[in-house]
């Protein structure tokens, strides 16, 4: 992989668009794309971040801080997915309804070509949001330049964005809710608070708080889980149980190994 050649290729793609609206979620992909689009196009690149109960507040804060520090042409919107019954019912294609709301909102701003931080690795997953992107004529510069996740991180590092290059994956909070379990904003807030609590108590970033119809499961990577004593696990369970109770929610709390996409049931 030649990072410099990929950066040049990406610059050519962005330059050819002349004016873009970048959907910025707060993760490494969209943040790196936004930073670079600003370098290439200046104020002809508008960065838009959607505020939602499903977006971790730390991601929103990260976008806001970069926007102000870098002088981005930047605005926030509420895409409105949380008001759509199709989204709240949390079907297997929930992401389609979320992205459809997002891209419709961005298109209404009328500020050039819509672009996303989708990379080549994303094409190998089941991502109904890509259908919404196609319907709204969204372009994916990383895909056009044949750039995968590892290359995005290398580009971020090359641009001096070391903190972005090291960011762990941070999917939306709704992805923690098992397919078919109704999305509830209060539960998304609880999930976020529990993940923050666990992150403060133990040294790991690979945390998922999964919610199903019958329990709330704290998932940790195997190396972290193996070094926790039973006493430490009980401390985490007790703290999570108290947080859930304060939020008016009663769930059995379990701790288990991290399993990627384990809240997602394709055939449910």
Summarize this structure as a short list of keywords or feature phrases.
globular; alpha/beta; 12 helices; 3-stranded mixed sheet; 268 residues
Describe this structure in words.
With 268 residues, the protein is of the alpha/beta class. Helices cover 47% and strands 12% of the residues. It contains twelve helices and seven strands. The protein has helices spanning 3-17, 28-41, 57-70, 85-88, 94-107, 129-135, 141-144, 149-158, 162-165, 185-201, 222-226, 230-246; strands at residues 20-23, 45-50, 73-77, 113-115, 207-211, 216-220, 253-257. It has a four-stranded parallel sheet with strand order 3-2-1-4, sandwiched between helices. Helix 2 (28-41) links the parallel strand 1 and strand 2. Helix 1 (3-17) crosses helix 8 (149-158), helix 5 (94-107) packs parallel to helix 6 and helix 10 (185-201) runs antiparallel to helix 12 (230-246). The longest helix has 17 residues, at 185-201. It starts with a helix and ends in an 11-residue tail after the last strand. The model has no long low-confidence stretch (mean pLDDT 93).
